[in-house]
Amino acid sequence: MTSDTHLEGQKLIYDTFKHLSTLSSGSILLLATFIKYLFVNPKGADLIGYIFFSFIISIIFAIIVMCIIPWAITAGDSPAVSNFGFISYFVSVGGFLVGIILFAYFSWINFS
Questions:
Q1: With 0-12 CB in 10 A as exposed, 13-18 as middle and 19+ as buried, what is 99?
Q2: Tens digits of per-residue pLDDT, 29-76?
């Protein structure tokens, strides 16, 4: 893999996590709006905390990934940075997926 290809790949990963953190933040705002204006007594209210937690975890670990990428580019890849980045990558994506699935389920039980 050439250096230019590697750099372009890291830019794409950075952009992916930038969008993932934006989507997670937007989902938190959307959920807060749903709770405040649409539901007086929502069904599955216990899911709300899990949804917020999942999106916040996704945002935190997306920011970690976005901080690791420039460091890895300038300082060179090290096993510790690579391992932490790899774990952060999957925690962020997993948190987002769990949050979206729970949010969809919460919406479904309250709108159906």
A1: buried
A2: 988 888 877 777 888 889 999 999 999 999 999 999 998 888 877 777
Enter the tokens of residue 77.
Answer: 């890849």
pLDDT band of residue 104 (cuts 50, 70, 90) is very high
Distance CA 96, CA 78 (A): 27
User: Measured between alpha carbons, how far is 34 from 57 in angstroms, rounded to an integer?
Assistant: 21
Rounded CA gap, 37 and 13, in Å?
A: 36
Asked if 81 and 71 touch (Cβ cutoff 8 Å), the reply is yes
* Rg of the chain (C-alpha set): 17
Q: What is the pLDDT of residue 59?
A: 96
Question: Which residue, chain included where needed, has tokens 């979206």?
Answer: 100
Quick one: which of 64, 60, 48, 46 has its CA closest to 95? 60
